[in-house]
Amino acid sequence: MNSSLTIEIGQHTSAGLKAQNQDCCDARLPPEPQLGMKGAAVAIADGISSSSVSAIASETAVKSFLDDYYCTSDGWSVQSAAEQVLKATNAWLYGQTQQSPYRFDKDKGYVCTFSAAIFKGTEAHIFHLGDSRIYRLRRGSLEQLSHDHRQWVGEHQSYLSRALGVNQRVDVDYQGLTLEAADLFIFTTDGVHEYLSQQTLVENLSGQDVDLTQAAKTLVAEALANGSNDNLTVQLVRITALPDTSPALTENPGNLPLPPLLKTGDKFDGYRVEREIHASSRSHVYLATDLASDAQVILKAPSIDLSDDPAYLQRLLMEEWIARRVSSAHVVRAAVTHGPRNYVYIAMERVEGQTLRQWMTDNPNPSLEAVRHIIEQVAKGLQALHRAEILHQDLRPENIMISPAGTVTLIDLGSARVDGIAESYTDSSAENGQLILGTAIYSAPEYFLGDMGSPRSDLFSLAVLTYHLLSGEFPYGTRVARCTTVAAQHKLRYRSVLNESLEIPAWVDAALKKALQPNPLRRHEALSEFVHELRQPNPEYVNATRPPLIERYPVRFWQSVSGVFLLIIFYLLSVISSTN
């Protein structure tokens, strides 16, 4: 079993016949666990010959990409992290040109082409600008993956239509590819690929025993021999082995034993157990005191019966992993640790107060303002998660705490989906949309179609929670979980939250109706938009009126209609009887 991606890299760059080499290339192959979490990266850039500062641009582009990418959040997807880095690099290069004597002539500014790939898990993520190229050689077949961003204005005249540093905003080509063992990726600047045929590339690079560094030098030499008068750069990346398993978040759970059942007074890994808070077939939760700091913490340990379920153990560890990377007053924090652990468990800061479920029991008829106060804080917690590209996926009253001061905190992150981790999974059904981890009655309809969630899925759950707080009911009852086809979901009809006993504006109901649309594309674009519309009427809803009685009380409506018909029947029968 191979737990890590294994690759070989070879590269060579030369000024060729020119006095200065404006090309640049480099690669990063970090050790585990960073290799599993962030992947290996290669990048190549080519300065434009009309600019005397283009060498600075290409070197800056490559170095900043490889350095800054590994400083981005582990929770971000590869695409998001890389594009953020490229936007920042482009802004810096563009700014340098604007502050230089070349601000009126882009062809002399800080401009370069750029191509890069990040190899993570079983995927390759390709980023491209300009006319450097990326090829893939697979089973003897060569395919050009990148598209040349060059505009021809004549038979012998052309210009770059896209490059790094040209404009204030940058448009980067991106594509994701599935890797196969023995794939060979070839990166070249135009000083090479314009003077070598694809057949030459195949002939020089076929075979698993090819020395990649020597092959890169050979290709550069052949391009020079064929008349290249430009800088020349070749990068080669061979996939020698793919990982069989997904990366571990922290220590491999298989290397640590599960903790024993604990009781009040037990001392455990530097903690003293005060009492058991909750026990189920899946986990045991304890209130404990950190003996080093005297702070109270919550310990969550897996059930002994789950020792052979690595997916569950990883999700348990993910709770603490997320809590250490999200900073918000409305998301539970991980407890401070003082040394290595001897068992599989997580330690979280204790959140004072009661669950929202208990609060609802104590406050069965909350005011609209009280509901707004709670929902706005839950939304802030969700927004903090979304900024880190994390979906909560299990929003329900039991997972929300309210302190005596009224502060609302999300406390359970065990069902969360982290984009940067999910794309590393090789075989986890939970990370591929095949397993619904959240509570069905609060989950968005798209999960029941097998789709991946999105921030709008958390928005749906937040709107269900809002609806339930206001009415004690659910907008679609229990029907959503049974609608596993698009056709079935089209038949879902929103049931208005308005009734005679609730003093709620019609425009609030309209905001809920939009957030609770079965089709996620018809919901609000952002959580903030929904929260705003709970306080300020959307102009589209200002003239909203209460829906007809048949929509608000369908059962009562038809009972009344049946009663009227029954009275009419009795009346007619009495008339007929009296006539006879």
Q: Can you tell me about this structure?
A:
The protein is 32% helix and 20% strand. The chain has 16 helices and 22 strands. The relative contact order is 0.08. About 1% of the residues have low confidence.
Please supply descriptive tags for the structure shown above.
Phosphorylase Kinase, domain 1, globular, alpha+beta, about 575 residues, Transferase(Phosphotransferase), domain 1, five-stranded antiparallel β-sheet, Phosphatase 2c, domain 1
Summing up helix and strand content along with how strands pair, one would put the structural category as alpha+beta
Sheet bearing the most strands, described?
5 strands, antiparallel
Percent of sequence in beta strands? 15-25%
Task: Give average pLDDT, whole number.
Answer: 89
CATH class of the largest domain: Alpha Beta
